[in-house]
Design goal:
Structural class: alpha+beta
Mean pLDDT: 92
Strand content: 15-25%
Radius of gyration: 21 Å
Number of helices: 14
Low-confidence stretches: none
Number of strands: 21
Distance between the termini: 40 Å
Strand order of the largest sheet: 17-14-16-15-19-20-18-21
Length: 439
């Protein structure tokens, strides 16, 4: 008996409320066989197909008026190969479940982003990343993947098998097919010591290269309308676990970072004139702290305050200059910015449409509280980022198109040629892909 579920037409919205879609069908396949049949049937009916995860992308990358595939029945670890140092996981598995399951087995990813609500396929397909001197995005940790292509066949891809597809499909934007399983590199679980410390903007920007060189994972947040930043350094530890105390952890991670911040954002949205004063208070509220724990408990944080976000990857040597331009722009403008600006790094990788493809990169991410008008701020920041050859995060708000993107991605033509071969009829297309990849 089939478990495949087809839902009547309904409206789908993403996490931030920035994208709405009304698909003709919503399907939750319970097996790869059911998924391939769904793809074949959609093609026969003349409907386009998109797979959607938890909706954490701010763009319409997964929106469709055709068949929306929800992978909530395609979850779980399929195989663990300790000798090879890999784990194969079904595409719909949330990162949170993967991280906890790996920890129970004494394993861990090497690096990850700071949110783990996304599905494995959704996070990797859009280039989700953390920060790292030597370790790159989640997609860069992929060793193989399975892809259902437009003709309904299942394609296995790795560095040895269909390597030209593997080179592109690790960050495939959903344009090449539907990912059904991902094989990720893992290693024995380890401890990270996190050191969080307030630091002046002028100091952290002057010492940025030193901090990156001296730490395995370095990031910082600048609070607009202030000269204050908060820094975070994560490094491997040979010591024992020393997680934050229950009370102090709740104060920092829930009360200050979520509860009080939510209240401040709500007030700032209602009365923008209060934002600079609130920023000064917020930037001084978080004190220095050091703690040691397993990786996902250090890398990730609860994010309960909803926001909209734009992020650009720049050549690392250009990032601090660009950040200073953003600071100067805000200071001379009437803008009131309630969210910190986040700066992270990544080594160069070899994925065709990775934001770090072929170049050592730094990321500048800007956010605003959900419901706050964001276009003026994001447009002004985007103008600065594009002047430095910036590459927008595929899952975050931006206005770039194929004409621009083909100029900042040397392997852009390689990706679009592969798309022409695998999906000539654009079964997996939508308006967003038409804009960013061309047609």
């Amino acid at each position: 008996m089939t478990r495949n579920r087809t839902t009547a037409t309904r409206t789908w919205r993403n996490w931030a409320g920035t994208v709405t879609a009304r698909p003709a069908r919503v399907v939750s396949p319970a097996s790869v066989e059911e998924l391939t049949e769904t793809v074949r049937r959609a093609a026969e009916d003349g409907l386009r197909v998109k797979a959607v995860g938890t909706g954490h992308s701010f763009t319409a990358a997964a929106a469709t008026d055709g068949v929306l595939i929800r992978p909530d029945l395609l979850t779980g670890i399929r195989e663990t190969d300790r000798a090879a140092g890999t784990v194969t996981v079904a595409a719909g598995t949330p990162l949170k479940r993967l991280n906890t399951a790996l920890a129970r087995e004494g394993l861990s990813l090497t690096n990850m982003g700071d949110i783990m609500e996304q599905t494995v396929a959704g996070a990797t397909s859009t280039g989700t990343h953390g920060t790292g001197r030597d370790s790159a995005s989640i997609a860069a940790q992929i060793r193989a993947l399975d892809l259902v292509t437009a003709d309904g066949s299942l394609l296995r891809c790795s560095a040895e098998e269909n390597p030209e597809v593997f080179a592109a499909a690790r960050i495939g934007l959903g344009a090449l097919g539907v990912v059904t399983a991902v094989t990720l590199a893992v290693e024995p679980v380890f401890l990270l010591t996190a050191r969080e410390e307030p630091m002046a903007f002028d100091r952290v920007t002057a010492e940025f290269d030193q901090h990156v060189a001296e730490n395995e994972h370095f990031e910082f947040y600048w609070f607009p309308h202030t000269g204050n930043c908060n820094t975070k350094r994560n490094n491997r530890s040979a010591g024992i676990a020393a997680p934050p105390g229950r009370l102090s952890g709740w104060i920092d991670d829930e009360l200050l970072s979520n509860g009080a911040f939510q209240a401040a954002c709500s007030l700032g949205r209602a009365v923008p004139a209060t934002i600079p004063a609130l920023a000064r208070i917020s930037s001084r509220a978080l004190s220095a702290r050091t703690y040691t724990d397993i990786p996902y408990k250090v890398f990730t944080s609860p994010r309960r305050v909803r926001f909209v976000e734009m992020e650009y990857a720049l050549p690392r040597e250009a990032a601090i200059g660009a950040l200073r331009e953003v600071k100067a722009m805000i200071e001379r403008s009437p803008l009131r910015v309630s969210f910190p600006v986040e700066i992270r790094t990544a080594p160069a990788d070899d994925i065709a449409l990775s934001t770090a493809s072929g170049r050592e990169s730094a990321y500048i991410a800007v956010h605003l509280y959900r419901g706050t008008p964001y276009r003026s701020y994001f447009t002004a920041v985007e103008r600065i980022m594009t002047a430095h050859g910036g590459r927008p995060h595929w899952g975050k708000i931006h206005t770039r198109d194929a004409a621009y993107l083909s100029g900042v991605y040397p392997r852009f033509g390689e990706f679009t040629a592969l798309r022409d071969r695998l999906d000539p009829e654009r079964l997996f297309g939508n308006d967003y892909l038409r804009r960013v990849l061309g047609d």
